[in-house]
Amino acid sequence: MKTDVLIVGAGFSGSVVARQLAERGYEVLVIDKREHIGGNAYDRKDQHGILIHPYGPHIFHTNADRIAEYLTQFTAWRPYEHRVLAKVEEKFVPIPINIDTVNALYGMDLDETTIQGFYDSVREPREKIRTSEDVVINAVGQDLYEKFFRGYTQKQWGLDPSELNAAVAARVPTRTDRDDRYFTDKFQKMPAQGYTKMFESMLDHPSIKVELGVDYFEFRERVEATHTVYTGPLDAFYAYCYGKLPYRSLRFEHEHLADTEWYQSVGTVNFPNDYEYTRTTEFKHLTGQQHSGTSLVREFPTAEGDPYYPVPRPENELLFKRYEALAEQEQDVTFVGRLAQYRYYNMDQCVGAALKSVDYILEKMGETSMP
Ligand code: FAD
Ligand code: UDP
């Protein structure tokens, strides 16, 4: 089989690159070892007719106009602002921590003028912010750290926050107002017909062929491609020659409640200190679907299983760099995406990285960059 470009992985990264190269006039073959497109952002109706995200809740948000505009070619949108409560000592309180979180937990009556004074009275300033522990202790001190971050992080990563880069906990800010949205990005919308429909539209191009249920490592001898774009785990590409690059996995437990219209008041409830799972998400909040029943997912973090998260810590970064040095030698292969670049990318960042990679791919193929 012959193609100009072989793309391994039909998630955000692979699909964006595929579309861009197809528009540039290349014949593109996209393969995925799964039986569906969309990667981890894939969604589908469950047997009860509720649109679910089989690989965990995916909420789209971005500050980049260019990325929102890019995707708007392939989908209409439905406004949705995600809200999360955390269960702490039998109370359900907003996370990120805001004025109402502090007031509810400590029986106080703080407002915009007094909240920073409270944080200043409990925070333990750290000179160097290296780890996730430093981030939280520096912002809100030991008690709020224990209540919201330590247990959750240990469950999620199998590591103490002191063993993870600062950027992990820094994803969740501390608020000095009453904003209870999980994200503050200016564009917060969900694809109106779901992610899979958006991917179908992105991949619907006469120069794109998609083959599903195909593993690259079994298939690669059978295809002749001028260039390969690989979006799977980087260590697997090199047969784990330097050892396994750690990726954190999850087990998802889905549940449908036929006689319950709404299970929880917000999209996601976090459980920092109870249960083996980290959070429960009720999909109808995210999708706006109406149904007399409801469908939920609970996330159980695991060390083994499909790779979902790179694990941001210095020793893993070093191992990644060794693999990256091999990757940089490849003239005919480009590595793109959350797994291949070993970056804790959100969906919009994957789109951004994929768009950026196209110029680089064209250059490697001896072409000029896209207009
Ligand atoms: P993936 O989606 O992982 O796609 C890679 C594809 O490559 C996969 O489909 C895989 O099957 C395929 N592949 C791998 N190896 C091979 C092989 N050997 N042969 C063939 N195919 C192969 N981001 C947000 O912005 N908002 C959120 O709310 C959000 N929530 C998330 C929740 C969870 C639980 C997780 C895990 C991630 C979440 N993300 C979220 C991040 C988001 O999923 C990623 O940024 C994005 O989907 C990554 O896209 P990708 O194409 O790089 O990788
Ligand atoms: N986190 C936490 N408690 C929370 C929410 C987040 O300790 O209630 C920490 C945890 O380490 C988590 C990280 O912050 O992995 C990033 O959270 P986010 O919700 O962005 O994770 P994701 O949605 O990517 O799984």
From TrEMBL:
This is UDP-galactopyranose mutase. Residues 147-344 form the UDP-galactopyranose mutase C-terminal domain. Transmembrane segments: none annotated. Belongs to the UDP-galactopyranose/dTDP-fucopyranose mutase family. One of its GO terms (molecular function) is flavin adenine dinucleotide binding. It comes from Cognatilysobacter lacus. Its cofactor is FAD. InterPro entries: UDP-GALP_mutase, UDP-GalPyranose_mutase_C. The keyword Flavoprotein applies. GO terms for cellular component: cytosol.
